[in-house]
Amino acid sequence: MITKEEYAHAIVELINAARKDCGASRTCAQVLLSAYNGDAFQLNITELCNLDADLYAHAMVVIMGRVELRREPHEFIKNGAAIFDELWKQWINYHVKNRYKKAGK
Predict the structure, then answer these.
(1) Among candidates 18, 11, 29, which has minimal Cα distance to 74?
(2) Rounded to whole angstroms, how far apart are CA atoms 92 and 105?
Protein backbone atom coordinates (compact mmCIF):
# COMPACT_ATOMS: atom_id res chain seq x y z
CA MET A 1 0.00 0.00 0.00
CA ILE A 2 1.32 3.44 -0.99
CA THR A 3 1.42 6.00 1.82
CA LYS A 4 0.25 9.59 1.42
CA GLU A 5 3.85 10.72 1.96
CA GLU A 6 5.19 8.42 -0.78
CA TYR A 7 2.47 9.61 -3.15
CA ALA A 8 3.20 13.27 -2.42
CA HIS A 9 6.96 12.80 -2.85
CA ALA A 10 6.53 11.02 -6.18
CA ILE A 11 4.15 13.73 -7.41
CA VAL A 12 6.72 16.44 -6.63
CA GLU A 13 9.52 14.52 -8.34
CA LEU A 14 7.44 14.08 -11.50
CA ILE A 15 6.37 17.74 -11.47
CA ASN A 16 10.01 18.79 -11.31
CA ALA A 17 10.84 16.58 -14.30
CA ALA A 18 7.72 17.63 -16.25
CA ARG A 19 8.71 21.29 -15.93
CA LYS A 20 12.16 20.67 -17.43
CA ASP A 21 13.05 20.41 -21.07
CA CYS A 22 14.29 16.83 -21.11
CA GLY A 23 13.34 13.56 -22.76
CA ALA A 24 11.38 12.40 -19.74
CA SER A 25 9.35 15.60 -19.32
CA ARG A 26 6.49 14.58 -21.61
CA THR A 27 6.11 11.19 -19.96
CA CYS A 28 6.15 12.63 -16.46
CA ALA A 29 3.50 15.17 -17.49
CA GLN A 30 1.34 12.42 -19.00
CA VAL A 31 1.51 10.35 -15.81
CA LEU A 32 0.55 13.33 -13.66
CA LEU A 33 -2.17 14.71 -15.91
CA SER A 34 -3.67 11.29 -16.51
CA ALA A 35 -3.85 10.75 -12.74
CA TYR A 36 -5.39 14.22 -12.41
CA ASN A 37 -7.94 13.91 -15.23
CA GLY A 38 -7.90 10.67 -17.17
CA ASP A 39 -10.66 11.80 -19.52
CA ALA A 40 -8.59 14.73 -20.74
CA PHE A 41 -5.09 13.23 -20.69
CA GLN A 42 -4.16 9.62 -21.21
CA LEU A 43 -0.83 7.97 -20.63
CA ASN A 44 0.60 5.88 -23.45
CA ILE A 45 2.25 3.22 -21.28
CA THR A 46 5.04 2.58 -23.76
CA GLU A 47 6.19 6.13 -22.92
CA LEU A 48 7.28 4.77 -19.53
CA CYS A 49 10.26 3.30 -21.41
CA ASN A 50 11.59 6.88 -21.70
CA LEU A 51 12.11 7.15 -17.94
CA ASP A 52 15.22 6.33 -15.96
CA ALA A 53 14.85 3.94 -13.02
CA ASP A 54 14.13 6.68 -10.46
CA LEU A 55 11.49 8.45 -12.53
CA TYR A 56 9.92 5.12 -13.47
CA ALA A 57 9.64 4.25 -9.77
CA HIS A 58 8.02 7.64 -9.05
CA ALA A 59 5.61 7.17 -11.96
CA MET A 60 4.54 3.79 -10.62
CA VAL A 61 4.02 5.27 -7.14
CA VAL A 62 1.80 7.99 -8.62
CA ILE A 63 -0.22 5.42 -10.56
CA MET A 64 -0.57 3.12 -7.55
CA GLY A 65 -1.24 6.04 -5.20
CA ARG A 66 -4.03 7.34 -7.42
CA VAL A 67 -5.69 3.92 -7.41
CA GLU A 68 -5.09 2.95 -3.79
CA LEU A 69 -5.73 6.33 -2.15
CA ARG A 70 -8.47 7.30 -4.61
CA ARG A 71 -7.45 10.97 -4.54
CA GLU A 72 -6.20 13.24 -7.28
CA PRO A 73 -2.53 14.23 -7.12
CA HIS A 74 -3.09 17.98 -6.84
CA GLU A 75 -4.63 17.41 -3.41
CA PHE A 76 -1.29 16.29 -1.98
CA ILE A 77 0.92 19.27 -2.74
CA LYS A 78 0.97 22.94 -1.81
CA ASN A 79 -0.67 25.08 -4.51
CA GLY A 80 -1.66 21.87 -6.27
CA ALA A 81 -4.55 23.30 -8.28
CA ALA A 82 -2.39 26.11 -9.66
CA ILE A 83 0.51 23.77 -10.43
CA PHE A 84 -1.71 21.32 -12.28
CA ASP A 85 -3.36 24.18 -14.18
CA GLU A 86 0.14 25.24 -15.28
CA LEU A 87 1.01 21.68 -16.33
CA TRP A 88 -2.30 21.42 -18.22
CA LYS A 89 -1.46 24.55 -20.21
CA GLN A 90 2.17 23.52 -20.77
CA TRP A 91 1.19 20.09 -22.12
CA ILE A 92 -2.10 20.97 -23.87
CA ASN A 93 -0.85 19.35 -27.09
CA TYR A 94 -1.23 15.99 -25.34
CA HIS A 95 -4.87 16.61 -24.40
CA VAL A 96 -6.96 13.85 -26.00
CA LYS A 97 -8.63 16.38 -28.32
CA ASN A 98 -5.25 17.54 -29.65
CA ARG A 99 -3.02 14.52 -29.43
CA TYR A 100 -3.65 12.95 -32.79
CA LYS A 101 -4.49 15.99 -34.90
CA LYS A 102 -2.68 16.04 -38.19
CA ALA A 103 -0.72 19.11 -39.14
CA GLY A 104 -2.73 21.48 -41.32
CA LYS A 105 -6.15 20.14 -40.31
Answers:
(1) 11
(2) 17
